[in-house]
Write a structure and sequence with these properties.
This protein is of the alpha/beta class and 383 residues long. 37% of the residues lie in helices and 15% in strands. The chain folds into 2 domains: 3-242, Aspartate Aminotransferase, domain 2; 246-376, Alpha-Beta Complex (Aspartate Aminotransferase, domain 1). The protein has helices spanning 3-9, 50-63, 74-82, 99-109, 124-129, 153-162, 175-178, 213-226, 232-242, 245-264, 283-289, 304-313, 343-348, 365-376, and strands spanning 67-71, 90-94, 115-119, 135-141, 166-170, 188-192, 206-210, 269-273, 296-301, 318-319, 329-331, 355-359.
């Protein structure tokens, strides 16, 4: 079945007899037992809820996984995932990570006895050099947030298999429409469902998708025990958002490419980071392992003052955190998404006071470019 059809029809499982086209919101905390020792399959919504189950089955199908688990946020999903590890375990992670993931690893996971090495995973030798007997997993974000580095998932998966390691891939930026890490050898796929899967900047959600039954059972036990499950109403919002995932991403990617090309021509822009540009270091790998380049890009202005001026003067594009929605959002990583990373570490990774991240929405590309143009040129739209 075509991906866009899967987005619309999801798991196609029916939970009621009314013929409702829209999946019902089963806004119930608990469910009646038909008899002693009997169950409808639903007992308590923390363990499972029909609306959430429909969503999870849909996401599992889209990623090509055995099972998907829906959480209240992307960070709740990562936090639960970290509970499969034990004190003393070692994890190798991409160094250019979303700031929230880095914060969790540095301030919570390390406190709980895990250790991490943060490396440039675009070079597989960097991973090999950090392997230890206690290494249990490799955590990859690709493309990375915010520098848009691209890691060869299949190559890292081969290394992980050879060393008995789990490969975890954050697929938030590209979604299963453009990239399917499980098919490339990953064991776990992670999503902030808040972003493209939801697609409307109106709810928070997170997902873990797996191919192994025992890992699925282990994560479901942890999810039920820790309780950070997605609510029925938020599950319904995600079901609704996913219906338009393919058409949204097609349009957003096309516009992102136009904006990236326009930015390259501007004197006040010194670098553009977008995997769809042929001179991007990850361009060839992206062509090999994805079906699209996505709608996220970052760029560097000529000075801090230009960056600040642009942030304060955009009017159609909104200066706000998050990404993946129908509205275009521009973010200042050093003050927002990556503010908790020490300045020296941020700057070493290129996250300085001239770097801006742009999530391209569904507005007209001409209108978005006009907005960037007037912001860069002090209200003058003539280049």
């Amino acid at each position: 079945m075509d991906f866009s059809t899967l987005c619309v029809h999801g798991s196609n499982k029916r939970y009621d007899t009314t013929g409702a086209v829209s999946v019902p919101i089963f806004q119930s905390a608990t469910f009646v037992h038909p008899g002693v020792g009997m169950s409808t399959g639903f007992d308590y919504s923390r363990a499972q809820n029909p609306t959430r189950e429909y969503l999870e089955q849909t996401v599992a199908k889209l990623e090509g996984g055995l099972d998907a688990l829906a959480f209240s946020t992307g960070m709740a999903a990562i936090t639960t995932l970290m509970e499969i590890f034990s004190p003393g375990d070692h994890i190798i992670a991409t160094d250019d990570l979303y700031g929230g993931s880095h914060r969790l690893f540095q301030h919570i996971s390390m406190k709980n006895g895990l250790s991490f090495d943060f490396v440039d995973t675009t070079g597989i030798q960097n991973i090999e050099e950090r392997l230890r007997p206690e290494t249990k997993a490799v955590f990859v974000e690709t493309p990375t947030n915010p520098m848009m580095h691209v890691t060869d998932i299949a190559a890292v998966a081969g290394l992980c298999r050879a060393n008995g390691l789990l490969l975890i891939v954050d697929n938030t930026f590209l979604t299963p429409y453009f990239q399917k890490p499980l098919q490339l050898g990953a064991d776990v796929v992670l999503h902030s469902g808040t972003k493209y899967l939801g697609g409307h900047n109106d709810t928070l959600a997170g997902f873990l998708v797996v191919t192994d039954k025992s890992l699925s059972e282990r994560l479901r036990f942890l999810s039920k025990t820790t309780g950070a499950c997605l609510s029925p109403f938020d599950s319904w919002l995600l079901i609704r958002g996913i219906k338009t995932l393919a058409v949204r991403l097609d349009r957003q990617q096309k516009t992102a490419f136009q904006i990236a090309q326009w930015l390259l021509e501007q004197d006040k822009i010194k670098a553009v980071h977008y995997p769809g540009l042929p001179d991007h270091p990850g361009y060839e790998i992206s062509k090999k392992q994805t079906t699209g380049f996505g709608a996220m890009l970052s760029f560097e202005t000529d000075c801090k003052e230009t960056a600040h001026r642009l942030l304060e003067r955009v009017s159609l594009i909104q200066y706000a955190e998050s990404l993946g929605g129908v509205e275009s959002l521009i973010t200042y990583p050093m003050l927002q998404t990556h503010a908790d990373i020490p300045a020296e570490e941020r700057e070493a990774r290129g996250i300085g006071d001239c770097l801006l991240r742009l999530s391209v929405g569904l507005e007209s590309p001409d209108d978005l470019i006009d907005d960037l143009k007037q912001a860069l040129n002090g209200g003058n739209t003539n280049v």
